[in-house]
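BACKBONE STRUCTURE TOKENS:
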Amino acid sequence: MMTKLPLRVSVSPSLRVSLPPHLRVWQRPLRGFSIIELLVVIVIIALLIALLLPAVQKARESARRTQCRNNFRQIGLALHNYESQHDVFPPSSTSQIDYGVWSPNSTQYHLHSMFTLLLPFLDQSPMASMIDYNASALAAVNVVPAGSKLHMYRCPSYTGLDFSLEPRYLALSSNFAIRNYVAIGATTVGKLWKEPDGALFPRSRTRMADILDGMSQTVFLAETREPNAAVWIDGGV
């Protein structure tokens, strides 16, 4: 009986196949980021954010100011359309100047602002239909519409509260929405009470022909940051 011997094959070094370098990646040890490299990347990203953030904020503020100017334009067109239909511009308030939320029994006074009168001319007829113009602007029947935040009466740059915190308003409702625009009724507060020399003041009946300086030379509106008294439905401020 014959015994099988194990077969041993010896390969000459000259016959060994050498792989090209791009196929021998596995021979190199893997290497990750060091702490210093990671910190450098984080610093670079932080610097880029610091450089870009002011530009982004400036672009956003520019867009907000553009929207605010557009609100002025829309209200101005609404004033013209109101005058075309009624032959007079709307008064800033339908009640005399010494009546307002500060008056005893303030709900007995009409007190509708020009902003309520302009609603149908700002594509807000549904909102206007919710308002009872025969009742006081501060009456309970008008509390629901008074709590509506109307975008065309708000400047996007305004960062204040949406509703007035004036105690006299809070005694009637906690949801009196504010506005950021106000009618110009006089050049001074004293004249507003005694001899208004502006276009839109309480119980005014200003006609186009009364604007002697010309429409393009007369200021009708201004922006206000008043956080409590500038309630859009109330003209008695």
